[in-house]
Known about the structure:
The chain has helices spanning 3-9, 16-30, 62-65, 88-102, 144-155, 174-187, 203-207, 216-222, 256-259, 263-269, 274-280, 299-307, 320-343, 365-384, 391-394, 414-422, 426-429, 431-444, and strands at 38-44, 47-53, 71-75, 111-115, 119-126, 129-132, 137-138, 161-165, 192-196, 233-237, 246-251, 288-292, 310-312, 314-315, 350-351, 355-359, 408-411. By secondary structure, it is an alpha/beta fold. The protein has two domains: 3-155, tt1808, chain A (Alpha-Beta Complex); 161-444, 3-Layer(aba) Sandwich (Rossmann fold), CATH 3.40.50. It is globular. The two termini are 43 Å apart.
Amino acid sequence: MNLEEVLQSLPADASEAIVEHNFSQPFLKALGFDFQEIVPQFPVSRRAVDHAARKNTDEDAFLTSHKNPFLYMEVKGRTENLSDKNHPDYRRAVLQLKHYLMSPESKTVRWGILTNSHHVQLFRKHGKVVHPVTPCMALSGDCRRLIKDIKRRIEEPNRALIIAVYNNKGGVGKTTTTLNVAATLAMLKKRVLIIDFDPNQSDLGDALNLKPLQGKILDVLKSKDPSIRDVIKPYKFEHPRLKEPLSFDIVLADEDLVSELDETRLKQQVKFHALRRSLEAVQADYDYILIDSPPNWRIFAQKALYAADVVLVPARHDNLHSLQNAGTAITQFIPEAQAKRQEAGEAGPIALPIFMNNAFRETGPQIQLMHQAITRIIKEARRNANGFDLTPYFYPKSRKGHENRKMIAIPYMAYISRADFMHVPAAFAFKPAREQYLNLVKEYFV
Ligand SMILES: Nc1ncnc2c1ncn2[C@@H]1O[C@H](COP(=O)(O)OP(=O)(O)OP(=O)(O)O)[C@@H](O)[C@H]1O
Ligand SMILES: [Mg+2]
């Protein structure tokens, strides 16, 4: 039976076992894996994911070696609701798939599929990040397009993770974070591109003593087939103790984006997806692309979030508005960007846990005030944002029934402003800053 016949023959209330037995093999086969390339009940951290798959090589057959899985598929019964993002069935299933993908034995796995044979969703694993790359799609009627879409994505070479750094509160460290995370990833030999998408300030280029462009990005964004490639510049950091310079690439801000056109005209001329498409053109050349965004929720911030796979949100423990705005970004702005992406048949972006920038090391009255404020923000979000639970975004180590208020943080460091004056990333110039950012990068990405 081919996949469509299988789908038609399955009863509407088919149990997990029935779906697994009848649907999994034909579906994975349609994605290009033959019988010898699929292992059912693949053991992962004392449990088992329903299917693991990987193309065989001349030396190594996956069915016999069980080595280096490439893709996991978790199967559910047809009565489980995977089409409603807020449904407990869906949330549980995603957590389970993420757990498998993040397990130490899953190092080589790059893709995760969640399906109940009514719906299917594809997730990507990039370093420590798992993010959806397609919305939850219906498997009905002619599913050739859907299969083609998933197949195309999983066969592509590894592409950069696109990270927007965003909080609509000003001065929380968006630019500093973009620069130092990029520098740290570059030290780890990752290929990194950073984008200054805050043309009103152009702080990112300024931090490296590089002058803004004029008109170039506007041309890229307005073009029919946009590619950022022609406006990329290399940045190199040289030091006598370094065998070779440390480097990453940068796209500088474009002054004309703010001086030539008002926001209404800009919105007419630059399509919503223009930044995303222009980055996709170079996405296979990098491991990470970071976008520095402005402190508001207007055109550039909206496009930056729309373009991203994930959003990194800095806040300050001693600034109430930065905490509130971090909550608003996660409960309102990111879902707005998700809705726009869904209109284009895509998924994303998702929020990473918030981190406290400029944080004090010691505990004290200010820390207590911060926790009290966060508790209020979490409660309000539950009430006003459809039951949205912000807890894991503020307290990523917290588990149900086990409260843990440890937060991800970068301390206050005088080195950071010193590096500002020197026009170099602090992580390149000062060891203590390097160590802090290395911790941050390991927490989130590698
Ligand atoms: N961890 C830190 N320790 C000390 N100073 C810091 C730290 N993080 C940021 N700063 C300083 O705080 C100031 C604001 O940082 P930054 O420009 O990165 O914020 P921003 O969110 O990009 O601001 P804007 O909203 O205006 O774009 C800068 O002078 C920067 O050097
Ligand atoms: Mg900034």
